[in-house]
Design a protein that fits this description.
Layout (H helix, E strand, L loop, with lengths): L3 H6 L2 H6 L7 E4 L3 E5 L9 E5 L11 H22 L3 E5 L15 E6 L16 H14 L2
Antiparallel strand pairs: 1-2, 2-3, 3-5, 4-5
Bound molecules: guanosine-5'-monophosphate and zinc ion.
């Protein structure tokens, strides 16, 4: 049966976050578990998983939203000390077109090592001022 309850029952990240499936845990508190990504973009690539199920950032509660960046900063700082990375990217995908493959909110913490690798990169386009005005109007009207 489709529906949110069934989604949670079958959700791999719910199971990992709540310890039903064992994982190498870098950090855990009452709200989050932080694990290594199975397909890392760089050495130490980690995922911050809330223990509650939210499909993506549009569903996350205020409580979790307020905390997740603090956890990301804590993990990033520890990675710089422990792994010798010189920076880190926080990446958070929402929706298929954005590359989301697991529909349980998670934030990637991707350590960076001055090795010239490109992980989060794009060729900059140009911003058309007329189009920007139109988009600005439409988006401000769409805000809840
Ligand atoms: P997304 O593309 O949804 O932002 O990220 C999902 C990430 O989860 C991917 O980078 C993928 O490698 C990772 N992943 C998928 N399944 C598992 C799993 O069972 N365990 C772990 N540790 N990582 C997973
Ligand atoms: Zn889940």
């Amino acid at each position: 049966m489709p529906g949110p309850e069934n989604e949670m029952e079958n959700c791999i990240f719910c199971k990992i976050a709540n310890g039903e499936i064992p994982s190498t845990t870098l950090y855990e508190d009452d709200m989050f578990r932080v694990i290594f990504d199975l397909g890392p973009a760089s050495k130490g690539h980690a995922l911050i998983l809330p223990k509650e199920h939210f499909a993506d950032v549009t569903e996350i509660s205020e409580e979790y939203a307020a905390k997740v960046l603090l956890v990301a900063a804590k993990i990033g700082k520890a990675m710089k000390k422990a792994l010798g990375c010189t920076g880190f990217n926080l990446v958070q995908n929402n929706g298929l077109s954005a590359g989301q493959t697991v529909f349980h909110f998670h934030m990637h913490v991707i350590p960076r090592y001055d090795d010239g690798s490109k992980i989060v990169a794009w060729d900059p386009g140009t911003l058309d001022p007329e189009e920007a005005k139109k988009m600005q109007k439409k988006i401000s009207e769409a805000l809840d």
